[in-house]
Amino acid sequence: MTRVGRKLSCGRWLAAILSSMVVCACAPATSAAPAATRSVWELTPYRIQLIVTVERVVELPTGLRGELERELIERVETVVGTPWDVTPGEPPRKLAQRMATGLDSVDVGLLPEGSLEFDKVMLLSVAVAAPGYRVSARELDVRTRVFGTTVRRSAWQPEKLRDVALMAIREAFAPLALIENTKGAEVTLRLRAAGLRCRDKTLSWATPGEVFRPLVRYNDRHGNVRRIASIPWTFMVLEKIEQDQLQCRLYSGLRSPLSGRRRGRIEQLALAVVPPRVPSRLTLRCPADPKRVLAGYGVYVGAAGSKARSLLGRTDYRGSITVPPSSWPLSILTVTSGRRPLARLPIVPGLERNLTAMVPDDDLRLEAEGFVTGLREALIDLVARREVLLGMVEKQLDAGKSEEASALLGELRGLQTRDQFERMLGTQRKKIFSPDPAVQKHIDALFADTSKQLHQYLDPEPIDQLARRLRSR
């Protein structure tokens, strides 16, 4: 941006802020503070540092970097206008070398001094890639210290570099929002600079279906960052836009991922996700023993908001499975053991290349279930034989045939008893124990339910009644 352009941009921003202050001053005292807070956030443009590198090859002219930088800033002023205040930055030698090898390897420590005073740092790299040129863009959101997805585009002619570079920057840009309110799965976001309109009316910083990731920033008393925490397995999907507020649906693998209370030095932020369109590798581990991987577990996948699920596959011997990119922005993974769902994991494939999820080790529950299933099948067979013999003994007694009834009663007493089944159940119960309380709860329920069935179907009283009837003859 030229010096005049920057003055104009700052002038428009100051005018907007002063206008909002006048409105707030005229409002009733009870609502002045919230309105002022809202105006400052939504009328504050993004201060963006643009860092450009151009590969030093004969195919690209020496002055291309400076020329491209100036043209981009002028084009941003024409197309975007007030919401972006772009300033050029000179890349240090180490940063330029790293950008030449790939933007994915750039870290915060390589940025120029003063870069963290901006809201965004936009990295742009131009290199020769037959039959044309490769343009790569990647942003750092300074407030959350999160690097976004690297966006790569191709330009076939030098004359198209500016337009392609602007397109890459626009796609790499991730809007930032404040988490205003949470109510169950409903989340309201306030988008930064939402009150500043773009020159190009077709530009929109948020559209329904867009995914946001929550981050918590902890500040010191001076407002400087102490630490930033990401919330795992948690995303928000934009459903509708009401004025300058975004109404989102929360998807999380956690029970209470977001706090409903707003505290002074803690900021709950939401950063838009630029889908990487590359796969992720998911590994399942046992919470009680993190070194233990969970092999053979089923993983189903579906779109957020849809009940439809399809089998992605089963974890391999390393407890891992590849999650490919999908046509929908947010995927929901359901981890199962047998028919039992164990975890529900929202994921944007490729946002993190390697993911580890702590999932209850269900192998012991399956072992307990296998034993109980076999025991119940034996119980069903025994109960059927027992009922037949009870009926036959009673029939012989009714006919006055005591000798035949006694023989059948002996056969009936030779069947397995409830006490024998209880001893088998108790022995196995001592062998199967899970350190995971949730899994152990399911195991205990299996054994308790089986014990209840033994008492219900193998009551010795009907046999004792027939024996007393036989002795009374």
What keywords describe this structure?
473 residues, alpha+beta, 10 helices, 20 strands, 36% helix, elongated, disordered N terminus
Write up what this structure looks like:
It is a single chain. With 473 residues, the chain is an alpha+beta fold. The protein has ten helices and 20 strands. 36% of the residues lie in helices and 29% in strands. The strands form four sheets. Strands 1, 2, 3, 4, 5 and 6 form a six-stranded mixed beta sheet that branches. The radius of gyration is 34 Å and the shape is elongated. The chain has helices at 3-26, 29-42, 64-79, 93-101, 161-172, 363-398, 402-413, 418-431, 437-457, 461-471, and strands at 46-54, 84-89, 120-129, 132-141, 146-147, 151-155, 176-183, 186-191, 211-219, 225-230, 234-242, 245-252, 266-272, 280-285, 298-303, 310-314, 320-323, 331-337, 340-347, 354-358.
